[in-house]
Each structure stands twice: as C-alpha cells, then as structure tokens.
Amino acid sequence: MEPVKVINTIAEAKNIIKRLKAGGKTIGFVPTMGYFHEGHLDLMRRSLKECGETFISIFVNPMQFGPREDLAAYPRDLQRDIALSSGAGVKYIFHPDAKEMYPDGFQTVVKAGRLATGFCGASRPGHFDGVCTVVAKLFNIITPDFAYFGMKDYQQLVIIEKMTADLNMGVNIVKCPTMREKDGLAMSSRNSYLSPDGRAAAPALARGIQKAGSRIIDAILNPPNPDGEVMAAIAAEFETDLIKNGFDSLDYFKIADSETLDEFKDAAALRTAGKIFVAAAAYIGKTRLIDNIVFDNPLK
Ligand code: AMP
Questions:
Q1: What is the pLDDT of residues 227-269, one digit of tens each?
Q2: Quick one: CA torsion of 227, 232, 234, 236, rounded to 10 degrees?
Q3: Quick one: which of 129, 176, 266, 300 has the fewest CB in 10 Å?
Q4: Active site includes 37?
Q5: What pTM was computed for the model?
Q6: What is d(CA 201, CA 60) in angstroms, rounded to the nearest whole number?
Q7: Where does residue 110 fall: left (phi above 0), alpha (psi -120 to 50 degrees), or beta otherwise?
Q8: Dist. CA 144 → ligand 1 center (Å)
C-alpha cells in the first residue's frame, strides 16, 4: 500500500492535482471536518470506487461556527483520522490550517441564498455562508470531477448543489445515504459529546422522524378532515415524544419539499408533493443533534 500523503499547503495540493490530471485521472473529493466515523468512511469508499484518485480534506472551518458555538471544543484526532482513512484506501489528505485558508486580509464570502434561510440556517445565522465559502475554496483548490456529501446534512447538500449550479463550478455532487448506529442514531462527530444517558436518549430523534414519516404517508393516503390540523398534530406528537424520551428541547421540526425546502402547510399540499423531506434539530444538554429522512409521495 502506498503511504498516505498529508498535504498542508494549497500550493502543494494544486501541484499534485495538476500531475494527476495530466495523467488523465478523474478526481473524487470528500470534504470533512475530521473525527471520522463510518459515515465519513462510506463517502471515501464510494469516491475511491468511482474515481481514479480521491482527495479528502480535514479542516474544521472557523467560518461556519457562530460565536457561541463549539469551534474550540469540536473533536479532533488527526492521527486516528489518518489511520482510518488510509485504511480505507485514501492516499491524499488535504489538511490546511486556518491561516492557510484564511490569510490576513481575506474578505470574500459566498452568500448562500433562500435555501439557507430556514431549518439549521434559522438557528445558525451565517453558518451556510461559511460552508459555501469553504467548499467553494476547496473546489477551486482540488478542482474535483465528483464531490461526495452525506444526506445526514441534507440542507447543506442542496445548498452546495445550488451553489455549484449557480456559479457554474462544473463539479458533480454525489448524494450519499446517512450511516446510522445499530439503534438508528445518525452517526456524527458530535455524538462524542453525549453522556451515557444522553447517548441512550439520542436514538429517539431518528425514531420520532420515522414515526412522523409514517403519519405523513397515512395522512396522504387517508386524507384527514379537517386537512390543516394533521400537520400541527404530527409536530406536537414529535416534540412530546422527544422530550419524554430524554431530549431537553426542540430547535425545529419541519415537513418540506425536498428540492425547494418550502414547508408544507397542510395535508392537501402534501398530496401533490414530489419527494418529502422531514427534518429536525434538538438538544440534549448543550449537544445539538440533527437528522432527517427524504421519501417519495406514495401517490406518485
Ligand atoms: P463533517 O465532517 O461533519 O463536516 O461531515 C463531512 C461529510 O460527511 C458531510 O458531507 C456530511 O454530510 C457527511 N456525513 C456526516 N455524518 C454522516 C453520516 N452519518 N452518514 C453519511 N454521511 C455523513
């Protein structure tokens, strides 16, 4: 096995990419903030299978954290990440520091549009501008043919797809399914913040979203009367179950169109929907967990 190469500078990354591209290689790219779990490794394996060469990046991007968020506490373990990703077959890890990505005088921002206003964007102002800016920079550095993103962060995925199309970046965005623990909890680097009690409570988020999904399908197939109240009832039941199962508070629960992220207000609107997106964010102590599902309208 070739040794893995950890690249710290943009100049070196560009040189290597130039060489690989001159050799006709297709480049796959997996941007991450590190502290790997199976979700990250699944994206890497997929890129390794589908592309001639795969670059991953590990960069905890300060620009996407709010002033009261967990930038300093965000879990990091570079040696473990190198071992796990090279074990999966990765040969190139781009790992710049903040000064390399944001040198003194840096001032240009990619501003996410309407897709970023609700859901996580409402509770994390500026977060998706930070995500778009760093991903645009990484795309310009790595110039990948394909970039792999997880459905776990579904809003992020559709925002990146839109940015790539709007700014003619020519990168194909590949959507990868959410990897889960055996009890259904979506894998996340932030799960490491949870106490044993918190970890035991956490799968209630995925369970509640699944249950809401079944209720939505039922409301579409067996139209309730009156039509509007069923949405409020599903949301109220979701929140009650979550708190009963050990969560401290709900940030949001929403049922929306999976492409526009526009919320459905009643069951009549759901019946004409294409794909339906059910998403929630909730707190256990200070830990904010997110999860979602996307499914077809059973009438289509
Ligand atoms: P992060 O390191 O959390 O920024 O995530 C890097 C990439 O991994 C993003 O595209 C995420 O959506 C993806 N990802 C994170 N968790 C999961 C998961 N449980 N399943 C699939 N992809 C994931």
A1: 778 999 999 999 999 999 999 999 999 999 999 999 998 888 9
A2: -160
A3: 300
A4: no
A5: 0.97
A6: 27
A7: beta
A8: 18
The helix (run of H) or strand (run of E) holding residue 172 is strand 172-176
Ligand 1 atom at minimum distance from 148 CA: 10
User: What's the CA-to-centroid distance between 233 and ligand 1, angstroms?
Assistant: 31
Instruction: Report the nearest-CA residue for atom 10 of ligand 1.
Output: 149
Tokens standing for residue 138: 């990484």
Q: CA–CA separation, 31 vs 228, rounded Å?
A: 41
Q: Which of 37, 40, 95, 127 is catalytic?
A: 40
| Helix H or strand E segment including 286 | none
Q: DSSP letters along 79-95, please?
A: HHHHHHHHHHT--EEE-
Q: Which residues contact 150 (CB under 8 A, 6 or more apart)?
A: 39, 42, 43, 157, 176, 177, 178, 179
- How far apart are alpha carbons 56 and 78 in whole angstroms? 13
Q: Give the Å distance between the CA of 263 and the centre of ligand 1.
A: 24
The reply to whether ligand 1 has any atom less than 6 angstroms from the CB of 188 is: yes
